Amino acid sequence: MGKLRCCKMRVFAVVLGWMALVVSVVLLVNLLSTDRVIYGMPPQHRRMVISLSDEALAKIQEERQETVRKFCKANGIHPTSNVDPSLLDHLYVDDKHKLIYCKVPKVASTNFKRILVVAMGLVNTTDPMKISGSDAHEKHFIPKLSSYSPEEVRYRLDTYFKFMFVREPLERLVSAYRNKFTLPYSQYFQKVFGRKIVYLYRKNATKDSLKKGNDVTFEEFIRYLTDAKKSSEQLNEHWRPFYRLCHPCVIQYDIIGKYETLADDADYILRMVGLDDILSFPTMPPRTGLSTKERTLTMFQNLSPIDIHNLWELFSVDFALFGYEYPHFKGVKSLPTAKINTSKNKMVKVQKLTAKEKIKG
């Protein structure tokens, strides 16, 4: 009887062991699925509980780039190294390591410029966080791709390692609004944009608001953005769509990183370019309060369906290119298909010019 009981206990232990193994495998597969991140902490601190292998990260990149290729092809735009110089103003070059980084404000751009400053040997430190944000953007010179000759541009686009980072477009918009219009040190933006917004969109504005522009509401900011699109006004880089900063349809990036998986994508880049032995991507202390996602949903609740529709038209290409899902808002039933206006797009004009040159040749 004792032997039978002992045998049953062993069988039970083996079954439990196999069940635990199956659960572990399922959890691992779930973690390795595309863009799966650990939530509940800021993106810059998120690393996979089980670190993704480079093979898994490469697969994620293939899927992201395929999404971009399909959308661009559907809009008749294809990669080329013959790019209009005016499109290259946000691409920064590290000739020492053959890197090109497309700067997208409000997507960890300050930390990426810190990384470039250290990598290029412009400072006597290997700690990016010892470089102030203002020094990273203003003091240390990093050449832009637009400053090179056409031949030098083509060579670098064909041979250098190119990367860019994006984030959920509406969350970036909220981040830009809070940073530029609600904080006391953003007086430049408040004077240049805030005063104009108050003047255009606020009835019975006080003299103080018209003078300082430091109390712009989110609703006023959104109306300014959507009206600027209608008037073809050039949007500031902090809220300009990603595709109009980095032009991923004509420039084929080796890495398309996301703010939602920032730490893993940034570490992957450092490993790929051989800088991981001297550099690590900066991390910051966890923030308290509402997450950016929660704050975004709260702030957008006060917008009208018309505002939501107009914002979709402004940022729909970014949502489609980079695989983000536009949130569902009450009162908004249907939205038009995202597409690039090729009739006014310099990317398409450059490609048509290139085609003519090939015919002549």
Automatic annotation (TrEMBL):
<dbReference type="GO" id="GO:0000139">
    <property type="term" value="C:Golgi membrane"/>
</dbReference>
<comment type="similarity">
    <text>Belongs to the sulfotransferase 2 family.</text>
</comment>
<keyword id="KW-0735">Signal-anchor</keyword>
<dbReference type="InterPro" id="IPR005331">
    <property type="entry name" value="Sulfotransferase"/>
</dbReference>
<keyword id="KW-0472">Membrane</keyword>
<keyword id="KW-0119">Carbohydrate metabolism</keyword>
<dbReference type="GO" id="GO:0008146">
    <property type="term" value="F:sulfotransferase activity"/>
</dbReference>
<keyword id="KW-1133">Transmembrane helix</keyword>
<keyword id="KW-0808">Transferase</keyword>
<feature type="transmembrane region" description="Helical">
    <location>
        <begin position="12"/>
        <end position="32"/>
    </location>
</feature>
<dbReference type="InterPro" id="IPR018011">
    <property type="entry name" value="Carb_sulfotrans_8-10"/>
</dbReference>
<keyword id="KW-0333">Golgi apparatus</keyword>
<dbReference type="Pfam" id="PF03567">
    <property type="entry name" value="Sulfotransfer_2"/>
</dbReference>
<protein>
    <recommendedName>
        <fullName>Carbohydrate sulfotransferase</fullName>
        <ecNumber>2.8.2.-</ecNumber>
    </recommendedName>
</protein>
<dbReference type="InterPro" id="IPR027417">
    <property type="entry name" value="P-loop_NTPase"/>
</dbReference>
<keyword id="KW-0812">Transmembrane</keyword>
<dbReference type="GO" id="GO:0030166">
    <property type="term" value="P:proteoglycan biosynthetic process"/>
</dbReference>
<dbReference type="GO" id="GO:0016051">
    <property type="term" value="P:carbohydrate biosynthetic process"/>
</dbReference>
<keyword id="KW-0325">Glycoprotein</keyword>
